[in-house]
Fold this sequence. Notes:
globular; 81% helix; 2 domains; single chain
Amino acid sequence: MTRILSGVVLAAGALAAILFLPTIPLRLLACLVAALAAHEYLKLVGGDISYVGGVAIVTWLIPVTSSTLAFVPVAVLFIAGLSALQKRRSGQHAITSAFALIYIAVPLGMLVAIHDRFGPWATLLLIATVVVSDSLQYYSGRTLGRRPLAPTISPKKTVEGAVGGIVAGTVFMAAAGPFVSP
């Protein structure tokens, strides 16, 4: 019950932020969320906590210009290489730490960029499409799933669930999209 209650509170807060915050405060909130998420991720994988600030900075920069996005993978490899050389860490450790820039900063930064360029309803449409796809992946996988998708990574995920999620997300976007962007 606690997980459901906290999820509802967080969802309501996110909805209010998307609908009512102007771009700059929304970007600041996204940077804060990115920093917190990066801290949790880096603790979980045993990564370098010093990347938290970089994740927040990349989250801030992505909405500024779309050309920033093209440089993120190159920057991640460069930063990982420097980290491995300077701190005498393994390449795997450096990549795992630098991956937070792509895994966390890019999606949050892009959500703010979509909000800034297309408005809050486009952002909510994208989030709703992901929720619908995720939900239908779960339910179609539980109901129809027979063939494992990637048994060593996630043994309960099935090919049928993946197909169900793709179809549901596509149908939802095709049906709801014209209401948001006629």
